[in-house]
Amino acid sequence: MSDQTPELYSLLVPLSEDRLIVPRACVVEVVRFSKPVNEPGSHSWMLGTVSWNGRELPIASFEGALGKAVPAATGRTQIVVFYALTGRLKSGYFGILTQGFPQLVRVNKDVLQLNASSGWPESAPVLCRVKMINEFPLIPDLERLEHMLAEELVRA
Question: Is CATH 2.40.50.180 the right assignment for the domain spanning 8-155?
Answer without folding.
Answer: yes
